[in-house]
Amino acid sequence: MKIPPCLRWLLALCLLACLPLAVHAQAQAQAQDDTGQSLLASLDAASYARMDGAIEAIVASGDERSRGWLEALLGGKLQRHKETGRFVVVLENRGRNWPVVDALTGEALGEMSRRELDRIGINNALRGQLQSVLAVLDLRVDDVGARREAARDLLGRVDEAMVVPLQGLLEDEADAEVSRLLAQGLAIHRLEQGDAAAIESLAGSLNPEARAALSSAARSDDPALAEAASSALADIEQKLRLNSGLETLYFGLSLGSVLVLAAIGLAITFGVMGVINMAHGELMMLGAYTTWAMQQLLPGQSGLALVLSIPAGFLVAALAGIAIERGVIQFLKGRPLETLLATFGVSLILQQLVRTGISPLNRTVVSPEWMSGSLMINEGLSLTLNRLYVLGFALLVFAGLMLVMRRTRLGLEVRAVTQNRAMARSMGIRATRVDIMTFALGSGVAGLAGVALSQLTNVGPNLGQNYIIDSFMVVVFGGVGNLWGTLVAGLSLGVINQVLEPWAGAVLAKILVLVFIILFIQKRPRGLFPQKGRAAEG
Amino acid sequence: MIPSSAFRSSRWLAASLLSLGVAAPAMAQEDPIKVGILHSLSGTMAISETVLKDTVEMLIEQQNAEGGLLGRQLEAVVVDPASDWPLFAEKARELLAQEEVDVIFGNWTSVSRKSVLPVVEELNGLLFYPVQYEGEESSENVFYTGAAPNQQAIPAVNYLMNNIGVERWVLAGTDYVYPRTTNKILDAYLKSHGVADEDIMINYTPFGHSDWQNIVSEIKAFGSQGKKTAVVSTINGDANVPFYRELGNQGIDAADIPVVAFSVGEQELTGIDTAPLVGHLAAWNYFMSVDTDTNYDFIDAWIEYTGDDMAVTNDPMEAHYIGFNMWAEAVRKAGTTEVDEVKDAIIGVSVPNLTGGYAAMMPNHHITKPVLIGEIQDNGQFSIVWETPSTVAGDAWSDYLEGSKDLISDWRAPLSCGNYNVVKGSCGGSETQ
């Protein structure tokens, strides 16, 4: 399908060369509007196949507004007013009425409704073409970052017509990284044309596009080419093996960190206090909704809102926890079965409250810019940023909690009360107050988990349900009452799960992990790190 | 939850007095026509089903504003089966036996439909089922207004094969009946078109799966073998959000490995930042972005009804719109709400759909629909890139599965059979699962 006429790329270069000349007098404006109008009209009229040519015509026109048009077209924001046939650019396309500006003059036209406008649609093939056109333009900007981005975009997209201009650009390129990427892009193209010499320059590259090109070359009819490609591919596979091991480890740790976050609050309320709180998941849900509410309060500042929702999520969940403790749990002390049922009821009530109060639908929580995308370690391995942050956050929360339990008065009192309630009371510790504080702490941490989860999964009424079983599993596996146990258990379960998943499938991997835990508990009923001493025997 | 009928009828009495003046007293004496709504308002499925309940209520309100049906007003009877499959059967029984509703609009998941099926058949009710499903079923009492596999999955795969040139396929789904049956059909279909075994990767995940790192990375590896690869996703509901997020974060671009989804619509996208997903595909029979006046009217009515400027419409809502209008038309044609007569009258009824054409009820209780392929846009809407030249009639029994390809369904007399085996020449052919 990719058969763009050869001239396009030369014209693209012309466009930039012509820009300075485009300074024009007022009198020319009218004439220019007419050409602009006809350029856009040809875009609009054509079928997808013919839009190809219309895009080239726009690039070739050398019109200084063409970049804006192409970007608007790429974003689906270039539209035509049905009645007047006027082309407009939609600035914001959510909701019913959209603010628009004239595509030719840039004049603001107020708001228009969807009904009045006709969108100029594109498909994936055209999107690819537009991206390459824009990438070639980007290769000439001063910003090195943008040039690298553009060169990376062009990998695997180079076609016959681009070769000459790209070679020209490659010669003038000052940045080594951009040059390397461009050279690779050109080599991939040469390989696709059946040039065995190109394999040399691709050898050892971990880039998926290079690998794809080598794989198809390895299947080619030319035996020499196929063999050279296969051996280059074998080298790459060797390198990738280490990569994929590291990747699995990272996947496991990041899944584990989510489990730790979800379980660590429970490790306090269930592990330390012995309260089976089935509403733990819903406390996480409250934390996630706090993040959403924060983003509603601070529109457009998703990063700040996320940072602020860390304390806010903690507070909201802690307060809810206090309410649950005072309202339900304190009356059911020492009756675990009834506590279990009552808190399960509370969890249902909280879920339905959110459903009727806010909405049964999931809420959108935007990931701030600095949390999207991934951190590139090498070309074959990149770590997704949001999970990296969550991993760090989990470790921070864990460290903070350890500090509280080991180094503060509250931690001391909590440990005293759980070890021997009567003795602690006779030493003047207000056990009831400690109960409240402990429960609030555990609930607050659940809220923190919710804030983190809002970046990974759905924020909806069912959020908590999905994690409650896993949380209990981690706490029991790690050893009830031991925070270190929770950390080790969470991380190792995550890694085990991710190691099993590729060959067992997601469903079976989950089952295998459960079976493993059941067998483990048979052998060591107190988990990985059992509590020692007299307190544990009670 | 259900307003007392006394309150309802007095309100309607007032309404009809206002609108009809002197004629009102005579009309108001007649009992209202009862419309049962069987959608989960709590539990996991509330996310998808609540809007469908609202849709039917809105349609009833509109119908009443136009004077009702056969001179009688319509009354909605809403029950909440709470995403609990056995409860669906009980609630259906309550609607039919106690409330004596004339028709039911309801269900989302296939498993809930299967649980309701025996009840509706036993008590001779009418059920309109609005969601795309796996086919392999035809009941005398159920009308399937959502897409059968040949109205969604097969055309989407054809599009990928012919227009995009896809050669390698990942079939990813949630682990339950709809994805498994659909993938079985697709697997058979792809192989019949010469796709090799090693070029198909099938993957199932549990409901609500949230950790997609490994699977997405596998897809990436599967797709970097030099052949054009696409993912056909029957992943259901909530699990899509983390799936798409992971796709975006691992940098899988729609231009490299497009994902075509059968269960992701405008409603599901409201929970996602769609900027990294631009260009991924979905196959439906309706998109909110369809450019027709009937659609804009429907959207305006919906926004007004919900009072939410950002409210979205989706494919199952259109299915209810079509189903409701078909039923109303059949009632008008039969002159009664008697189930048996409506059932006969509805076959062949044709009403406008929202995409600018007409939907007709076929003898197999499925309807005709256009198939649209849309690409996700950054505003959570779809841009339509391809559509079938004409509407496609729903096929109850797939032509690509052994044991099912010989079956046809025709509920007109004298055949009146949902699984007629054309080879054996007898009704009651094999059930395939």
User: What's the shape of chain A?
Assistant: globular
CATH-derived architecture of the largest domain in chain A: Orthogonal Bundle
Tally of individual helices of chain A: 21
How many β-strand runs of chain B?
A: 19
Number of helices of chain B: 13
Overall residue-averaged pLDDT value of chain A? 84
Overall structural domain count of chain B = 2
Q: Point out poorly predicted stretches of chain B.
A: 1-9, 13-28
Signal peptide (chain B): 1-28
Protein name (chain B): Urea transport system substrate-binding protein
InterPro entries (chain B): ABC_urea-bd_UrtA, Peripla_BP_I
Keywords (chain B): Signal
Short description:
Chain A is mainly alpha-helical.
Provide structural commentary.
The complex is a heterodimer of chains A (538) and B (433). With 538 residues, chain A is mainly alpha-helical. Chain A has 2 domains: 7-125, no CATH class; 243-362 and 382-537, ABC transporter involved in vitamin B12 uptake, BtuC, CATH 1.10.3470. Chain A is 67% helix and 6% strand. Chain A has helices at 7-18, 26-45, 48-61, 66-74, 124-138, 144-154, 163-172, 176-192, 198-202, 208-218, 223-272, 280-297, 302-327, 336-357, 385-407, 409-419, 421-426, 431-453, 465-478, 483-523, 534-537; strands at 78-81, 87-90, 97-102, 108-113, 117-119, 374-378, 381-384. In chain A, helix 2 (26-45) runs antiparallel to helix 3 (48-61), helix 8 packs parallel to helix 10 (208-218) and helix 15 (385-407) crosses helix 16 (409-419). Chain A is globular, with a radius of gyration of 30 Å. Chain B has 433 residues and is an alpha/beta fold. Helix content of chain B is 38%, strand content 18%. In chain B, the strands form 5 sheets. In chain B, strands 7-6-8-9-10-14-15 form a 7-stranded mixed beta sheet, with helices on both faces.
